[in-house]
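In keeping with the milestone schedule agreed at the kick-off meeting, the structural modelling team has produced records for the first pair of proteins. Each record is given below as a sequence line and a structure-token line. The laboratory manager (R.T.) confirmed that both were archived under the project's standard naming scheme.
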Amino acid sequence: MQLLMNEKENEKAEPKKEKINIISIFKKNKTIIYSIFFYSAGLLFGAFIYKKFQGDTIDSLIISGSYSLFLQQFFHNLARYYLVFSITVLLGICLIGFPIINVIPIILGFETAIRISYYYCNFGIRGFGYSMLMIAPFACLLLTIIILTISKSFELSKKIYDLTVKKDLDNVEINYKSYLRSYLIYGIMILIAAAADSVAATALGGIIVL
């Protein structure tokens, strides 16, 4: 009898482990999950398009984005990075931005796949290794920053929609300073990513020969 009482006391003393709620986890991270899914779709689509329409026109566009001087490469990367970032931010302050914001990861995936496909198809294993060293790390860095921006923009656009269309004035409140601060931080991160990409492209470009 005493043993049973001790066991019951031990069961009460031990905290119950919470069950993992997959649906709850998905809802909390759905923006990240959707972004990765659409990015993957963009990768597949880009690889298919390059294989289907491979030619001098597409190759010339890829080559035109490579520069030997740091400043040239930096401004090229900065313009490319900030174009994607700016569109993502604009969709955040747009009334109907949240339904179409996942187009951004598709475009990023498509562009990355086109570049990697070019090096692989033209240089084989060496081109693939070059892509994994010179393209993939910075593509992942840019994707991470853009996913963070997408998350904020989706949330902001949805709130603007609820306030404007649904007139949900009681339950929805927008702290614009918080969003502006987040966008500013992500903008600085974009600047650093563009600089890192440019340093690697110019410093290692002359060493790594395909």
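The second protein of the pair:
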Amino acid sequence: MKKLLNTLIISAAAIIVGYWAIALPFHLFDTLTGIQMRIIFICEIFIYFAVFSAFFIIKEAKAEKKNKERKYKEKHIKRLSDNANHFNNIKQKNFHSAA
């Protein structure tokens, strides 16, 4: 349910932003000069690039965090296994753990 709601919100936002990004130059076509239209077009491209970069950076940060947590869990499991093996070796040699 959460994923469906998230998808609907993103889709609606994309439609609204896309409409205004395309409609803005057409509404301003009669009032702006050619150079002003080019400036608006370049600004739109920079905005698209910034939004894309933000989503990409967020996605990469989440993937990096997930990878870091996975490595930490693997290290933790290995340490627990090593400690268990160490104490098993001590018990097999009839030594006390306090010795």
